[in-house]
């Protein structure tokens, strides 16, 4: 900020001082009991202006370093602003630092979301190549029809998984809380993965409460499906 801009920001204070000094000089000049020469009045008025300009200049020089820090701070928001010398500057400094902290946190979260999305996309593409490769062999009449059905189920699951992942950013808009039967949801997820249970000969002990729960059915089903699918993926043949 230049000195002239600083003066313009304090124009009302300057006008108040000028009007006040002029009023005082006028009162002294018109008071018959006070013997003031015109030269003395002009001298005191000019002297007051000198003190006013000196005060504004010293104040500006005192704040100039702070203004320069504000101008350079926008070039690097990764650091905290510092150097405040009075309560007004400390108030502005705290506000700017709080806003910058929120900005850095949101930026970090954005980068993390982008990283998660990239990693998920790479993993999803890798996973879906397996059932697609199996389906390419479906032209062979001797291919096991059950295997084809399993691969189709896997593709369907991966597509649903990608759809739910894409909705995560709008999770609150796609969330409907209702009373649901937890036992029914778990059994439905097991039926969805029944071919994997059968093909890997994996047993399961089901012990789920019959009580109702308040939840969103599709999101809870998605989460349980994730757990069951990963469990089947890393459970040995014939496991439990």
TrEMBL record:
One of its GO terms (molecular function) is phosphoprotein phosphatase activity. The lineage of its organism: Bacteria, Bacillati, Bacillota, Bacilli, Lactobacillales. Keywords: Cell membrane, Kinase, Membrane, Transferase, Transmembrane, Transmembrane helix. GO terms for biological process: cellular response to phosphate starvation. This is histidine kinase. Its main location: membrane. It comes from the Bacteria. It catalyses: ATP + protein L-histidine = ADP + protein N-phospho-L-histidine. It is an enzyme of class 2 (transferase). It is found in: Cell membrane. One of its GO terms (cellular component) is plasma membrane. SUPFAM superfamilies: ATPase domain of HSP90 chaperone/DNA topoisomerase II/histidine kinase, Homodimeric domain of signal transducing histidine kinase. The chain crosses the membrane at residues 12-30, 42-61. InterPro entries: BphY/WalK/GraS-like, HATPase_C_sf, HisK_dim/P_sf. It is a multi-pass membrane protein. Its EC number is 2.7.13.3.
């Amino acid at each position: 900020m230049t000195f002239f801009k600083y003066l313009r920001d304090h124009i009302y204070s300057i006008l108040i001082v000028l009007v006040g000094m002029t009023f005082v000089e006028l009162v002294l000049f018109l008071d018959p009991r006070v013997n003031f020469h015109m030269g003395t009045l002009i001298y005191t008025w000019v002297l007051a202006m000198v003190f006013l300009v000196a005060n504004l200049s010293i104040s500006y020089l005192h704040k100039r370093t702070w203004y320069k820090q504000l101008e350079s701070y926008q070039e690097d928001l990764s650091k905290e602003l510092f150097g405040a010398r009075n309560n007004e500057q400390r108030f502005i400094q705290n506000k700017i630092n709080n806003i910058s902290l929120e900005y850095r946190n949101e930026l970090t979260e954005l980068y993390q979301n982008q990283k998660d999305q990239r990693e998920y996309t790479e993993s999803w593409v890798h996973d879906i190549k397996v059932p697609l490769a199996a389906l390419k062999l479906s032209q062979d009449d001797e291919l096991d029809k059950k295997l084809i059905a399993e691969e189709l189920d896997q593709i369907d699951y991966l597509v649903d998984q990608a759809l739910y992942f894409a909705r995560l950013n709008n999770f609150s808009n796609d969330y409907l809380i209702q009373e649901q039967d937890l036992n029914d949801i778990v059994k439905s997820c097991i039926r969805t993965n029944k071919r994997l249970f059968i093909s890997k000969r994996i047993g399961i002990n089901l012990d789920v409460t019959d009580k109702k729960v308040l939840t969103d059915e599709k999101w809870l089903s998605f989460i349980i499906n994730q757990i069951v699918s990963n469990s089947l993926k890393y459970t040995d043949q014939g496991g439990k």
